[in-house]
C-alpha cells in the first residue's frame, strides 16, 4: 500500500509500507520503506535519508561481481582442489578453506566492498608479503603473463577461470 509519493529534485521516491515497486527496487535502510531507482545509486547525490545510496562500499560492490558469485567461485575452487588451494593466490592465511581470513563469505565480501587491493589487505589483515604476492598475481593477470599463475601450480585447465575472475576485479579498479 503506497502512502506517499514525493518529488525530490526531479526524482520520484516512493514511501511504501510493504515493499518496493519493481521500477524502484533499491530499498534504503531504516524504519520507513523508501525506495529508489537503481539509476540513482552511486550517482553523487544522496537519495536515502542517511546517504547510504552513496556509501563507498556499496558503490564499489555495485561495480563488482555479486558476493554470492564470488563466494561460489571460491568455494568451487576449494571443493575441486582442496582446502589450501587458495593459498596460491592469497598466501599462507588462506589455508584451511580461508578460515584464518574469516572464511569464504568474509573474503567474498571483502573482494566485493574493498575499493582497492590495499583496502582488501587492510580488511583482512594480510601480511605485507601476502599482499605483495597477491599484487604480483593481479599484475600478471592484467599484463596477460600467465607464467606466474602456472608457476604457482595453477593448471592450464584452471587458468581461464582464475584469469576471468581476477580480470573482473582488475576491470573495476581493484589495482588502482
UniProtKB/TrEMBL annotation:
It comes from the Eukaryota. InterPro entries: IDLSRF-like_peptide, LDL_receptor-like_sf, LDLR_class-A_CS, LDrepeatLR_classA_rpt. PROSITE patterns: LDLRA_1, LDLRA_2. It holds the Pfam family Ldl_recept_a. The keyword Acetylation does not apply. PANTHER family: PROHORMONE-4 (PTHR20967). This is IDLSRF-like peptide. It comes from Trichonephila clavata. The lineage of its organism: Eukaryota, Metazoa, Ecdysozoa, Arthropoda, Chelicerata. The gene is EAG_01737.
